[in-house]
Amino acid sequence: MATTSPSPEIEDPPTGHVEPLEDHSEIEQFWEPDAGATTAEYAITTLAACGFAALLVVVLKSEPIKELITGVISSALGLGS
């Protein structure tokens, strides 16, 4: 039983001299729709930050963490024994 997929069929590269494009409009049209990518990246980053903040809130509300933070603050202010 084979565990790999067959190799994709690849066309041979062009041979001989390739003329440069005189009209760059096709290239510009190809790259133009990329304008919304930045917005999508910001949205994903914002969702990740919100998820991390929610996790941080859950951790900080736990009793052992509250005691640890209270102890550090008390020691820093000289209120501890």
What's the layout of helices and strands?
Elements: H1 25-31, H2 37-60, H3 63-76
Key traits:
81 residues
Quick recap:
This is DUF4244 domain-containing protein. By secondary structure, the chain is mostly helical.
Can you characterise this structure?
- The chain is an all-alpha fold and 81 residues long.
- It has a domain at 43-81.
- The chain has 3 helices and no strands.
- The model has no long low-confidence stretch (mean pLDDT 80).
- This is DUF4244 domain-containing protein.
- The chain crosses the membrane at residues 42-60.
Q: Main β-sheet: number of strands, strand sense, barrel status? A: none
Briefly note the structural class of the backbone.
mainly alpha
Question: What value does the average pLDDT take?
Answer: 80
Secondary-structure element string = HHH
The rounded distance between the terminal residues' Cα atoms is 71 Å
Number of strands: 0
Residues in helix, %: 55-70%
SS summary, helix count: 3
Strand residues, percent: under 5%
Protein name: DUF4244 domain-containing protein
Keywords: Membrane, Transmembrane, Transmembrane helix
Region (Disordered): 1-22
Transmembrane segments: 42-60
